[in-house]
């Protein structure tokens, strides 16, 4: 029986296992999907060595970048992005890394189109943020990264002010802040400057409406969570595993 799974840390909440288990049952496939919770990425080679019939893996926080040195090949787009969320295990045992997050985000972002202003703030600078940046570049967005440390490419959270907020119509949360069970957490941006011209996209899907989205909605912004993005990227991953 073919085996697939998800590697990450503290991933009991994950969408992927239920999604693929249901998909396999509906399609009467002899396959399983399981969570592989790793305390550290250095345990990955042992997982590969000891898990029989493994055909493919998804990768989530915090290993989307850290997984790369353990792979044999990278798909060109994953190499450009610098993050991997899908691994195909070839018949010869070679591990090939792909990124389907960018596809999932691009498809899910269509809910906000057409957009008069192609300006955006990306909250966070991890592996997920890299895929989002890649999409925004291809769509000709003018975007900035918001993180806790100063950089030439963006702002710190403390630097955000009324002018910056008003000049960026799309705000994307790529941090894990607000993910179940820590649902009371949220990125600290000046929500008082959000208005009906803003669109808030949270990559988090559990809970379906994070504090980030609630605060934006209360100020009149259009909002969406990461559920559709996950579904699109998961289907793309499945297409890669079957190819």
What report would you give on this structure?
By secondary structure, the chain is α/β, with parallel strands linked by helices. 30% of the residues lie in helices and 23% in strands. It contains eight helices and twelve strands. A six-stranded mixed sheet has the order 2-1-3-5-6-4. It has a six-stranded parallel sheet with strand order 9-8-7-10-11-12, with helices on both faces. The chain is elongated. The mean pLDDT is 96.
Distance between the termini: 18 Å
Order of helices and strands: EHEHEEHEEHEHEEHEEHEH
* Strands, count: 12
CATH class group of the largest domain: Alpha Beta
Shape: elongated
Tally of separate domains: 2
Return the average pLDDT rounded to an integer: 96
CATH structural fold name of the largest domain: Rossmann fold
Strand content: 15-25%
CA gyration radius, whole angstroms: 18 Å
Helix and strand content put the structural class at alpha/beta
Based on the model shown, name its key terms.
243 residues, alpha/beta, Rossmann fold, six-stranded mixed sheet, six-stranded parallel sheet, 12 strands, elongated
What does the secondary structure layout of this molecule look like, with pairings?
Blueprint: E1 2-8, H1 15-26, E2 31-37, H2 44-50, E3 54-59, E4 73-74, H3 76-81, E5 86-89, E6 95-98, H4 101-108, E7 119-123, H5 127-138, E8 142-147, E9 154-156, H6 162-166, E10 170-173, E11 199-202, H7 211-218, E12 222-224, H8 227-242
Parallel strand pairs: 1-2, 1-3, 4-6, 7-8, 7-10, 8-9, 10-11, 11-12
Antiparallel strand pairs: 3-5, 5-6
């Amino acid at each position: 029986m073919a085996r697939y799974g998800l590697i990450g840390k503290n991933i009991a909440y994950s969408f992927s296992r239920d999604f693929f288990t249901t998909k396999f049952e509906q399609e009467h496939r002899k396959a399983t999907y399981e969570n592989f919770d790793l305390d550290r990425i250095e345990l990955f080679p042992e997982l590969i060595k000891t898990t029989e019939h493994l055909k493919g893996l998804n990768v989530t926080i915090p290993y989307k970048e850290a997984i790369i040195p353990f792979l044999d090949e990278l798909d060109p787009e994953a190499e450009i992005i610098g993050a991997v969320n899908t691994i195909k295990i070839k018949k010869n045992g070679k591990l090939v890394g792909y990124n389907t997050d960018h596809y999932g985000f691009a498809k899910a972002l269509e809910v906000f189109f057409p957009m008069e202003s192609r300006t955006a703030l990306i909250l966070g600078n991890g592996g997920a943020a890299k895929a989002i940046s890649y999409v925004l570049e291809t769509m000709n967005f003018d975007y900035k990264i918001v993180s806790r440390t100063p950089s030439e490419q963006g702002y710190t959270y403390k630097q955000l002010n009324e002018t910056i907020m008003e000049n960026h119509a799309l705000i994307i949360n790529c941090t894990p802040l607000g993910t179940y069970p820590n649902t009371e957490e949220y990125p600290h941006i000046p929500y008082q400057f959000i208005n009906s011209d803003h669109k808030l996209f949270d990559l988090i899907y559990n809970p379906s409406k994070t504090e980030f989205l609630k605060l934006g909605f209360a100020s009149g912004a259009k909002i969406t969570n990461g559920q559709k993005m996950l579904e699109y990227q998961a289907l793309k991953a499945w297409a890669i595993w079957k190819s």
